[in-house]
Description:
Blueprint: H1 15-20, E1 23-25, H2 34-43, E2 47-49, H3 58-74, E3 82-85, E4 87-89, E5 92-93, H4 107-113, H5 116-133, E6 137-138, H6 163-179, E7 183-189, E8 206-207, H7 211-216, H8 219-227, E9 232-235, E10 239-242, E11 245-247, H9 255-264, E12 270-275, H10 279-284, H11 287-297, E13 301-304, H12 308-323, H13 329-346, H14 349-352, H15 357-379, E14 381-385, E15 402-407, H16 421-426, H17 443-458, E16 462-467, H18 474-482, E17 485-490, H19 497-511, E18 525-529, E19 544-547, H20 553-563, E20 593-594, H21 597-613, E21 638-646, E22 653-662, E23 667-675, H22 684-697, E24 704-707, E25 718-719, H23 723-735, E26 744-751, H24 763-769, E27 772-777, H25 783-793, H26 798-806, E28 812-819, E29 825-833, H27 843-846, E30 852-860, H28 867-883, E31 889-896, H29 900-906, E32 910-921, H30 922-930
Parallel strand pairs: 1-2, 1-13, 2-3, 3-6, 6-7, 7-9, 8-10, 9-12, 12-13, 15-16, 15-17, 17-18, 18-19, 23-24, 30-31
Antiparallel strand pairs: 4-5, 10-11, 14-19, 20-21, 21-22, 22-23, 24-32, 25-32, 26-31, 26-32, 27-28, 28-29, 29-30
Helix pairs in contact: 4-15, 5-6, 5-15, 6-8, 11-12, 15-20, 17-20, 24-28, 25-26
Amino acid sequence: xxxxxxxxxxxxxxxxxxxxxxxxxxxxxxxxxxxxxxxxxxxxxxxxxxxxxxxxxxxxxxxxxxxxxxxxxxxxxxxxxxxxxxxxxxxxxxxxxxxxxxxxxxxxxxxxxxxxxxxxxxxxxxxxxxxxxxxxxxxxxxxxxxxxxxxxxxxxxxxxxxxxxxxxxxxxxxxxxxxxxxxxxxxxxxxxxxxxxxxxxxxxxxxxxxxxxxxxxxxxxxxxxxxxxxxxxxxxxxxxxxxxxxxxxxxxxxxxxxxxxxxxxxxxxxxxxxxxxxxxxxxxxxxxxxxxxxxxxxxxxxxxxxxxxxxxxxxxxxxxxxxxxxxxxxxxxxxxxxxxxxxxxxxxxxxxxxxxxxxxxxxxxxxxxxxxxxxxxxxxxxxxxxxxxxxxxxxxxxxxxxxxxxxxxxxxxxxxxxxxxxxxxxxxxxxxxxxxxxxxxxxxxxxxxxxxxxxxxxxxxxxxxxxxxxxxxxxxxxxxxxxxxxxxxxxxxxxxxxxxxxxxxxxxxxxxxxxxxxxxxxxxxxxxxxxxxxxxxxxxxxxxxxxxxxxxxxxxxxxxxxxxxxxxxxxxxxxxxxxxxxxxxxxxxxxxxxxxxxxxxxxxxxxxxxxxxxxxxxxxxxxxxxxxxxxxxxxxxxxxxxxxxxxxxxxxxxxxxxxxxxxxxxxxxxxxxxxxxxxxxxxxxxxxxxxxxxxxxxxxxxxxxxxxxxxxxxxxxxxxxxxxxxxxxxxxxxxxxxxxxxxxxxxxxxxxxxxxxxxxxxxxxxxxxxxxxxxxxxxxxxxxxxxxxxxxxxxxxxxxxxxxxxxxxxxxxxxxxxxxxxxxxxxxxxxxxxxxxxxxxxxxxxxxxxxxxxxxxxxxxxxxxxxxxxxxxxxxxxxxxxxxxxxxxxxxxxxxxxxxxxxxxxxxxxxxxxxxxxxxxxxxxxxxxxx
Length: 931
């Protein structure tokens, strides 16, 4: 008599044994840990997730998998373990062994070959290698449609942006894996192809497309793979927010799993949840509750990547849910049947305890090596070569030098571009979980090898250096002038914008070269994108543009052959993205509120900390030393109005803008505009700026606007930390209406090691011979003459600094330079210490190692015979006064940059921060705002 369809096979009556089969868990280390042994023996765990952190070589991987299966067998498991991992190729490989395991191109790299047959071959070869070490379940294929090519973490892990093309390649991968005996698991349902990242790692990325939109695009590959026999499906941890769908975590939602996946798409295989250890989920729900929700939503297997206590919490949570009646036994048994059915198709105890191992891998090696080379050779894509620079052997002679410029990138994880395999799949959503321990070769090492390969190929000299977010440095400019051709490498420049800016800058330099006779002579430039092909896909200003889709050694070996004509490029960018396609950010209008000191001070300090932390490595943030109090002048002659964009629930500030109206001069000032780095490009800055301008326009007596404030002296103008950032910010403010072409430089400088400092040779003698006398004065008795001098010679904000200094004795003073013949003031400078009220508004001083003294706002009269001598005299006397206080350093702020820095540099000062102060007439703003 045939058993009833809903009956379980004998031996599966025990609830604990049933529940153990419904979890997939990972662990740390390359050997069996006591924790994973306990999960198998005590909790009947049915599936193990292995990642790059577990697998150091093919031989060790085979040994580890066999030991895990043996433990399960000896513990009385009725069926073998499912051993799952990611092996997407390209940048995401859990198993790497340079001897026994071959490297193949990423999904997009394979699609660039245009050959679905090749995709099938690569899938079979990949699966055969995994099968040899005992793996029976591959977490693939990736079925996401990259509907937004920019800023998406999946990048080349997807086939592209065309749903039908993604579908066709996905099915070929799936069939290839199955042909070699592996179970499959499509990912990442319903789509990771167009996520919006609006918050921190405790916030969940959002799918904003409607179900109708998803059905026409993102769901097409999933639907077709299901129809063709997909074994499993991973449901992501993303949220969904659109009409008819409001879901916090897709894998916890019955709308997504039971309704959309099961009923609408008719999927009958095993559904795997996103890793419930992702911080966004544990922060919002908790693992125990999340496990119950995932099971009730329709997930069959719950994934937990590494933490043993959390894994125990999940198992206990599921059991409690059954015991409390929240989860029915029929649902547990239904999931168990699906898991057992999957295991019956991909494994048995005979297979599990007898993996083919190294012998099989050795036999496959020659054919797989040939396949890898063929795949990479056919994937390299020359997207543009307008000036016919390729092959380079026709462009530069053997005796000429070639320059290679490569970015400093993070280590390759398991011979990949970015993440270790577990985190890469489960997902790009939890940056805190990144594991770099499995690095095989750093990106720098790979690029050094590229340089050596270029040199060997051309039998000529190759100059090679790296670049960072610091932009084009003098060394780069010198090497560009010296070389006869330049290659710039980018790696995901759309998410590392400094690479994009660097490439464009180098392009301009190459276009501006001249022969010794003065004729313009453009230097050959090739830009190579070694990750996302979208870096310059739509930017025709880069006239020779090549894409490799990943920067494994095999890919770059193929690149060298293409560059020198040994191979002809046949690769084509997959999908439908064209040069004319533009991806626009939506313009949102945020609620801007007035600053409330009691409510917002702590939140502003937190925002300042976040902004400081976002500063590029090696750069000094302008906000060092700044607190919420630094922005508050509390002066009777200054109208302050500060604004915030905030989360009214959490009280967190997303943006802050400080404005000041100096009634004495009729000047409206925007003193700072700060946006949370994680929330930029969402129009928060636009909303704050618009409110600030509207408010300042209402001030009676307004004559001019100024971008940048000398008091408080935090942002003296547009920061100019690097040419790239300066250009970006200038353009942003120009689009808002500021005439940045009329900007004026201003800076802050520092003189360190004061105890051992000596003035430049001859300076003291020069000052003694001059017809100028210097004195130090305190208090309001000297105000009239000093303020008259300041009003006629200084820029906006300087007068207010002097007023504070006049009223700040004994912690503030003013040094004067007077003409000895008639006591006319020729120059002045403010001097102050750390205890002065002025120091509160000058973070450059507060951020310098104490004890420290401050100098501010030098003002030199046009009647001074020698501007530089008067300036240096004031500074020298100030330094001597500060040194009497046993200070280690002097900070000098609010220095006009028109030629002053050379003077200061000769005295030993170095740059702290440089800015561009921008002014414009109020009438212009009024007309523009009215329009």
